[in-house]
Amino acid sequence: MGELINQPFNGQLGDILIEKLNGEYNRCVIVSAFAKNSGVLRMKPALEQFKQRGGEIEAYIGVDSHGTSYEAVLNLFNLCDRLYIIHSESNSTTFHSKMYVLNNDHHSWIAVGSNNFTGGGLWTNIESCICYDITDNQSPILDNFNQMINRFQQNADNCTLLIDNQNQIDALLTDDYLRREIRLAIEHNTNQAPQNTRQRQNAFGTLRGIRIPHLANRHNDTAHEENSHTDRRRAVATNDTAVHGLQTIEETNETERIWFETRAMTGGSRNILDLSKLGMIVSGSAANSRYETNNNNTILGGVAFFDIDPESAGVVKDITVNYNGVDYSPCTIKFAPDNGSWRIQLKGSDADNQYKIHLIEGLNWLQHKILVFEKITTDYYVMSSVPEDELDTISANSYVVATNGINARSKKYGLLR
User: Fold this and answer.
1) What's the average pLDDT block by block, 10 residues per block, for the chain (417 residues)?
2) Is the pTM of this model over 0.70?
3) Which CATH number fits domain 3-179: 3.20.20.190, 3.30.870.10, 3.20.20.70, 3.40.50.11010?
4) Spatial distance between the Cα atoms of 227 and 224, rounded to a whole number of angstroms
5) What is the rounded distance in angstroms from the CA atom of residue 129 to the CA atom of residue 27?
6) Residue ranges per domain, the chain?
């Protein structure tokens, strides 16, 4: 008999999958209509460990309704032994399955339900699925699952694409089967804009107590006091935090997106992005956010997004930045006393130390862009690049926009809805 999981009330499928991946299984199959970095990258450490122990991973991902992002497919391609994209050209047919299977020669576990391979689907949405433990791999449920998988592998309906190289993924982007995450986020915000501009009273409450997993740090001592060998500490500590108005800066793994206008960048290699302690609000409001200050005209600087107190000038923090499916580290955040500002050095290398993030698209490619960062964990971020002529569009989709410092001509940054 199966166990019904009503997320998040009696479990979160993401946590269950992580636990199962650490078990006795040697094959993992992911079937999901949608995939986003919010799910893929939070599952990435467990999937990497699973592969290191000899496990094999295959995924069957849908691309209907632009529910799957280009970046998520790139990251899945790097994680999976076999990756299949599923799509029917018929407008009346949508690939909508969500199943997760782990097995070995003697035992299988399967979850069938509504959970997509996204942060919401695995953790924060209200979802339901039934989980089955199958001994001796004898079950009509498993037989039916394998029949479907075999059909996809054989491409019986010409609706399956086995991904062999990144060029195929880029072609799906060019042909608009896939879209970049930042575009999907902006389109979602635009589509969710109320048709009736009359301010309404909320008719519903907010479901509370839902947590995002706290994953192990990708760097040891990722944040510490510079020039201190005996008193290294986290950049943010609940009992040692500066107070700005009503807010304190605390570590969080909640999904947030921030953007920065780069203009010419700084540094000899043009790979230093200036942050700030405080910003002057240009539009919107930081009220009731963790960036609120005791001055309605100011907002905490971009350094707070990376869970560093703006007044903790001695803190140095290394983060990992995922760009187009590749992790680059370390990218270092530190305070520059000469000009009194925070900065992030986008200088990290890939795992093989062959490519640096500030050179992967040519010399000075980071100049005159808008860089968007999405938080996966407190030391792991996804970066997207947007042309600078999209500034008005991205500003319109932000709940608050500010300038770095008090000069109205300073570079802008903002928090996306």
Assistant:
1) 93 97 96 97 97 97 97 98 96 96 96 97 97 92 95 93 97 97 87 60 77 64 50 35 57 88 92 93 94 93 94 94 96 91 95 95 94 95 95 95 85 94
2) yes
3) 3.30.870.10
4) 9
5) 20
6) 3-179, 223-416
